[in-house]
Amino acid sequence: MEDHFSSIRFLLISALIVMVGVIIASIVGMSIQEESKGMAKPTFLFLLLFTATGKLFSFVQFIGFFGPLIGIILGFDSINRERVSRTLSKLLSQPIYRDSVINAKFLAGVAIIAIVLVAIVLIISGLGIRLIGVVPGAEEVLRLLIYLITSILYISFWLGISILFSVAFRSTATSALASLAVWIFFSFFVSLGAGVLADAFAPVSQTGAGVDPNIVLKHANIQRVISLFSPMTLYSDATSTILDPMRKTTQSLILMGPLERLSISRFQSPLPLLQSLFIVLPHLVSIVAITFLCFGICYYVFMRQEIRTV
Amino acid sequence: MERQIVIEAEGLTKKYGHQVAVNDLNLQIREGEVFGFLGPNGAGKTTTLLMFLGLTEPTSGKVRVIGFDPTRDPFHVKEKVGYLPENVGFYDDMDARQNLQYIARLNRIPDKVSSGRIDESLKVVDLLEEVGKKVGTYSKGMRQRLGIAEVLIKEPKLIFLDEPTIGLDPDGTNRMLDLIHSLSREKNITIFLSSHLLDQVQRICDRVGIMIKGDLVAMGPIEELAKKKLGIDKEHYTLEEIYMKYFKEA
């Protein structure tokens, strides 16, 4: 852990995140300030700091897309750097259990991730309180806390992926590239592939004439199920639901007619925290599961590996 | 008085797939000995060392190091046994003291105790003057001596040295050999070193074992092997002659 704090890349990455976080928060904060002038402050205004897109993207989106990179940067050379510098065999000949090496690498990374995320959320909150003059209520704080825990787990999953590659590959460059490839695959190609597959199985005609609602539904479902394979979708669905009490489902696309929309809008009140939690529970469980699965594989591979120096 | 046995191997075998790295190794090393483990590259020397330390599991056979089974109980073995790998690595951005302190902490030596030991072992290897420099700037000989210092931190009963003099200049080699010799004589540490630099081994080792293609083909004091292989009448012999004879036969 000491290593991480003093390393240049840790400083760079946290500086970047703090910078982007502060910029987003101030843009959003100021626009909220403008808009809410002379109005009664709506409920859950504070959470808007994190979810409102402002000019570019919201803080939540930023972490969803960029968070994996933090995990990868912290982990991609954790084991194979020790191997290349020939300290690994020396380390393992000390009276420590072999698993404490891999556990320490993982936990140190998780601790760093937690510290960075908590710090940035606190910075944004502080800035937000000054800019919009609203103090977060208990429920908002709780929602933020759940968001934080989810984010830490999500980034830890990527840390696990990158440590896995650093165990599997001898060269640090290979493991970095492999981790980045996985990242790019999940962030772009899964959603792309989901669209293609959905088109293949349930083609929806582009003209819009004579659309069978069943097929449209099927199309949307296929697309959704496939994109759930991506941890990014899992994470962004989960966190945006948690942070936005108005959202009643994780699905971003709901097809409904005008009457339906009207009837729904009559019940347009925020969802209680517990209900939001129930909606995203499957997502949260999946994130926890993939994180542990990933670390489990990593642990297994490392414990079984031959420690030949050559 | 019979000295205690520190390493005992019985029928120790290691296979990688179909390839036999170490075949049916039997040996006993007694306390205070300097044992030279000889053999060409790829003969299975390092594999044997790794098995003694519990870093690699033997395919079959029994081994006991300072009374413990390294496969079942690597923890106790590693507590009392020092290992200097071939071309040992250090954390280059730390200085010598920080490197040693890290190892001391991994050995659960309290900082109060370890700072004294660090100074002492740096003095033994003659590195006290360079202690503030980052290890990345050290020469090969200095790194190797620092490796010895690192091994001494845990006050071992037994030290494994894998090719300790490889790549050192004549001066560095001499210092290293003197150091190994004095550790054995003054601190009564058993030393098990693997090498293929025969004249050096001849200078410091009490007994040698010759390993070729995974088989231990000969073992004993150098004079004894000389008598057996070269004839009793020969007054001057070198380990190299003995070794080459075994090597050609194998």
Residue share in helix of chain A: over 70%
Strand content of chain B: 25-35%
CATH architecture of chain B: 3-Layer(aba) Sandwich
Oligomer: heterodimer
Amount of beta strand of chain A: under 5%
Helix content of chain B: 25-40%
Shape of chain B: globular
Number of DSSP strands of chain B? 9
Report the CATH C-level class of chain B: Alpha Beta
Overall SS class of chain A? mainly alpha
**Domains of chain B, number:** 1
Unreliable runs of chain A: none
Query: Which secondary-structure class do the elements of chain B indicate?
Result: alpha/beta
Shape of chain A: globular
Features:
heterodimer; A: 310 residues; 13 helices; B: 250 residues; Rossmann fold; six-stranded mixed sheet; 9 helices
Question: Your description of this structure?
Answer:
The complex is a heterodimer of chains A (310) and B (250). Chain A has 310 residues and is mainly α. Chain A has one domain (2-187, 273-304). Chain A has 13 helices and no strands. Chain A has helices spanning 2-6, 8-35, 48-51, 59-75, 80-84, 88-92, 98-132, 138-168, 172-201, 213-227, 231-243, 258-265, 273-304. Chain A is globular, with a radius of gyration of 22 Å. The relative contact order of chain A is 0.12. In chain B, a hairpin with a 2-residue loop joins strand 1 and strand 2 (19-30). Helix content of chain B is 39%, strand content 25%. Chain B is globular, with a radius of gyration of 18 Å. In chain B, helix 4 packs across helix 5 and helix 8 (222-230) crosses helix 9 (239-249). Chains A and B meet through helix 6 of A and helix 2 and strand 5 of B.
